[in-house]
Structures are given as C-alpha cells and as structure tokens.
Amino acid sequence: MVTDPIADYLTRIRNAQMAQHRIVEIPASNLKKRITEILYDQGYILKYKFEDDSKQGLIKIALKYDPSTKQPAIRSLDRISRPGLRQYAKPAEIKRVSNGLGIAILSTSKGVLTDKQAKANNVGGEVLCSIS
C-alpha cells in the first residue's frame, strides 16, 4: 500500500526519465488522471492513455524528450504538500515556479488547477507539486 500516491506518481515519472524510458505506467486515480491532463496541456508529456482493467486502471504516459540533446522536457518534479505537512495557499500567496517558467498544481474547490488558473479564478487550495 502506498501512503502518498501523488509522491509515488511523481517518483515513477522521475525514475522513468532518469532511465530514459519512453513510456511509464502508473496506477490510476481521478486525481492522477487530472494531473496527467494538466501535464499534457502544458506540454510536459507527449501523450497519455487511460486504460481500465478489472481493478484500478492504468495511466500510460509517453514521456517527452528534446530530440537533439535527449534531455527530458520535465527538469524537476517536486512534491510540495505531504500527508504529514499539508501546504495551503491563498490566491495572493501562490508562488511562481522558476520565475514563471514552471507550473504549480493545486487542488482547489474548483478542481485541480495550475497556479495561473487558480489565480485567474481567485481561488486558493492545497499546493500538490511544482514542475519545471
């Protein structure tokens, strides 16, 4: 049993990139599916596919690399809020990631949003992770 599924999700992506894998498979949940959609919309991954099996389901993610340097599109994945120490932010307190070049993913009352979307909707929430 995994005590922190979001940290497990980020670690699987991080480890697959370090090993230069093209595809990573992750057990699915609604929160992980929404984070995957945000990563795709922001251009950090190539493709994704949600597969249903008899149990939990899988998320297959095709990772994105720079063709010339073979560097991954995701430079860093950091878990901000943890089960032992939750981190919440009001709209005015949401910090920029990598001087605005990265994104933070928040769980808000209006769903899972990026930091820019949360500021535009004037909602705060739990800061799940930051990606640059």
Overview in brief:
This protein is α+β, with helices and mostly antiparallel strands.
Number of distinct beta strands? 8
Number of helices: 3
Question: For the terminal residues, how far apart are their CA atoms?
Answer: 29 Å
Low-confidence stretches: none
Structure, explained:
This protein is α+β, with helices and mostly antiparallel strands and 132 residues long. The chain has three helices and eight strands, in the order αβαββββββαβ. The chain has helices spanning 5-18, 30-41, 115-121, and strands spanning 23-27, 45-51, 58-63, 77-79, 88-89, 103-108, 111-114, 125-131. The strands form two sheets. Strands 4, 5, 6, 7 and 8 form a five-stranded antiparallel β-sheet that branches. A three-stranded antiparallel β-sheet has the order 1-3-2, with helices on one face. Strand 2 and strand 3 form a beta hairpin. It is globular.
Overview features:
132 residues, 5-stranded antiparallel beta sheet, 3-stranded antiparallel beta sheet, 25% helix, 30% strand, globular
Helices and strands in order:
Elements: H1 5-18, E1 23-27, H2 30-41, E2 45-51, E3 58-63, E4 77-79, E5 88-89, E6 103-108, E7 111-114, H3 115-121, E8 125-131
Antiparallel strand pairs: 1-3, 2-3, 4-8, 5-8, 6-7, 6-8
